[in-house]
Design brief:
The chain has about 550 residues and is of the alpha/beta class. The protein contains 17 helices and 25 strands.
Length: about 550
């Protein structure tokens, strides 16, 4: 894989026989190369019926290669929370997968463990500082840095630490977030090298003194040790697709509670090494694509040459009111009603953001010609092409029509992406722009404490930062049961968090949680390993 991309053997660090990391020195030497074309893959609002965004990303990359385009696929690393929970892995499916699937879905090259270690080192240094005299004057009631782990565990959302007497520190309220929601993960994904990584880690705000002034990781002298733990994790991972094409897999998922994009280092490496880079952003376009543009593109200057919106007829019928048990049946009424969800996502991408879009219908065997014609005709009236894709069954050969349309869009006259809001807009107004212009909301709701907190961020010099919305991925609203394209709802802000190192403000809406729980029957119950080391039950 490295040789195909022109990467010398000295620039790769093998992790076994089928995984490797790229050296930072080599990546730094790519800076002057002209970039390839960036293709963003996103989707409609997720449903239990499934959409297949990662599978489509891989199939499209394989198809572009078949068309003679040197293509690099850039994906996010799976979190073990969903792997052992309900969603499962994130390496694609059918004939459009990246391998080795078992390794990638589990520990991979240890990046998530390194993020957790760096995150929790800072947490330990905070409590140690309190115990050792607290010369910084950190108010234990105003500590905002929680702990992190890469497993769904609802019991750890809110805890008390420091019990057991003076030898165990000061009792205080604390809690855990899943690793992908860690600011350290976001910093890893947005840093452009080790120096930038360490500077960003130093800026992390861990809590506040009684007078309201911030205490940072730099004040605790923690940034250097944290960066040392991330020395290897910051390097992008090289693997391959089933078809033998290169894929860079690096950085965290979860666009519902994080920024949901793969690392900037991996994306830039792919653009320097290939004619085309196909990357994905998490969940629906209202979350992943919005953050890709308003956070990642804003900070990096990247511009997608085209965007693919993935949908299935099953999912569209579900959005149109059909019960999950019957979405495999032909139902033109439900399908037509569900098109509102797809239409809004497409309109958001082509309108406020000014991107060129194509819709990929991820094909299922029970899809009917009448249903497919309905979708194509509806989108044609909007000036958008819908393409059938059969990559799950056929690999890249099944996505050649999609690849052809992507090339047509990408190689037309370039147009810069339009950001949704200006840096100078007040933070609350930035949230309102997202809610009203993309979600179809009538307004946002925030109590006086939230408004005061945002005002304090602005007073401290953080008003220019973009917003990282945390809300349910299942709906444009904050109610996961509201399917389709609801209008006139209110987006309620429950909490706000400053990510000074990652350089955004997290806005937590509705009932969304930053530490998920396991379902009644978690996927972990079906995962096993035999005496030969063969793992089963991963999906």
């Amino acid at each position: 894989m490295a040789a195909r991309l022109g990467i010398p053997e000295t620039a790769i660090e093998p992790y076994g026989r089928d995984k490797a990391k790229l050296s930072l020195d080599f990546l730094a030497g790519l800076a002057d190369r002209p970039p390839g074309k960036l293709i963003l893959v996103t989707a409609i609002s997720p449903t239990p019926a499934g959409e297949g965004k990662t599978t489509t990303t891989i199939g499209l990359g394989d198809a572009l290669t078949l068309l003679g385009k040197r293509t690099v696929i850039c994906l996010r690393e799976p979190s073990m929370g969903p792997v052992f929970g309900q969603k499962g892995g994130a390496t694609g499916g059918g004939h459009s997968q990246i391998i080795p699937m078992e390794d990638i879905n589990l520990h991979f090259t240890g990046d998530f463990a390194a993020v957790a270690a760096a995150h929790n080192l800072l947490a330990a240094m905070i409590d140690n500082h309190l115990t050792q005299g607290n010369h910084l004057g950190l108010d234990s009631r105003r500590i905002v840095w929680r702990r992190a782990m890469d497993t769904n565990d609802r019991a750890l959302r809110d805890i008390i630490v420091g019990l057991g007497g003076p030898a165990n520190g000061h009792p205080r309220q604390d809690g855990f977030d899943i690793v992908v929601a860690s600011e350290v993960m976001a910093i890893l994904c947005l840093a452009d090298g080790l120096a930038d990584l360490k500077q960003r880690l130093a800026r992390i705000v861990v809590g506040y003194r009684g007078d309201g002034t911030a205490v940072t990781a730099n004040d605790l002298k923690a940034a250097g040790a944290m960066a040392a733990l991330l020395k290897h994790a910051i390097k992008p991972n090289l693997v391959q697709t089933l078809a033998g094409n290169p894929a860079l897999v690096h950085g965290g998922p979860f666009a519902n509670i994080a920024h949901g994009c793969n690392s900037l280092l991996a994306t830039r490496a792919g653009l320097a090494l290939g004619d085309y880079v196909v990357t994905e952003a998490g969940f629906g376009a209202d979350l992943g694509a919005e953050k890709f543009i308003d956070i990642k593109c804003r900070k990096s200057g990247l511009t997608p040459a085209a965007v693919v919106v993935v949908a299935t007829l099953r999912a569209l019928k579900y959005h149109g009111g059909a019960a999950l048990a019957v979405v495999d049946r032909a139902d033109l009424v439900a399908l037509e009603a569900g098109l509102a969800n797809l239409e809004r996502h497409v309109a958001n991408l082509t309108g406020p953001f000014g991107l060129r879009a194509v819709v990929a219908i991820n094909h299922f065997t029970h899809d009917t010609d009448a249903e497919l014609d309905l979708v194509k005709n509806h989108l044609a009236r909007l000036g958008v092409t819908a393409v059938m894709a059969y990559h799950w069954e056929q690999g890249g050969a099944g996505a050649l029509d999609l690849a052809g349309e992507v090339v047509r869009l990408a190689e037309s006259a370039p147009a810069p992406v339009t950001l949704l809001y200006d840096d100078a807009l007040p933070l609350l107004d930035k949230v309102r722009q997202i809610a009203t212009r993309l979600y179809g909301a009538a307004d946002i709701a925030a109590d006086a404490k939230i408004v005061a907190r945002l005002a304090a961020f602005e007073a401290d010099g953080y008003g220019h930062l973009p917003i990282c919305m945390a809300k349910t991925q299942m709906s444009f609203s904050t109610d996961p049961k509201r399917r389709g394209a609801p209008n006139g709802h209110i987006v309620t802000i429950r909490e706000v968090r400053l990510a000074a190192g990652a350089e955004f403000v997290v806005v937590i809406c509705g009932d969304i949680l930053t530490m998920p729980g396991l379902p009644q029957h978690p996927a972990a119950e079906k995962i096993d390993i035999d005496a030969t080391g063969r793992i089963s039950g991963l999906f």
